[in-house]
Amino acid sequence: RLQGGFHEVDPALSVVGSLVYRWISGTRLGAVQTLFWLTPICTALTGVFVFLLGARQGYDLPLCAYAALAFGTATFAWPYAKTFFRDPLAMLFVAGALLCFEITIAKRGALRIQLLHWGLLIVLIAGGVLTKNIVALVVPVFAVTALSRSRTDFDHGQSRAKLVAGIAIFTAVCIAFLV
Q1: CB atoms < 10 A from the CB of 113, how many?
Q2: What was the pLDDT predicted at 178?
């Protein structure tokens, strides 16, 4: 990036940053200075998603709070929060997608709510891919997780084998595209 290779950089951080800049420029806060708060806010929101994911899994709330605090202070999230790299935004999209995935796979609630969660899941994964291409590998991981959690009986393994083959092909295409 420092040598002028901006045409290869994924656009999500630039788009989100420009939207924040336009929104803040109407105030007297100093838009450029406020823009550098974007990555710490993304990191903090990812910590909130870590808390919500733990609570969704049934862990005690104090333990979820400790996990979110440990995420923010004891991982690489802390140094990345101090930079304007795209990794905190990618983490936010992946954590949000994981939370939506956990909610949608539970299959509770009205069909409208389920469709809303599926749509939000797709939007978050797309945002993550537009932030960093490597986030595309989340899709096969979610598919394998959904497959392992499914309680439906496949046609004596034939449908399951086709699904696993499809996941493997998609993963291979993602890896070939990213390499």
Answers
A1: 12
A2: 64
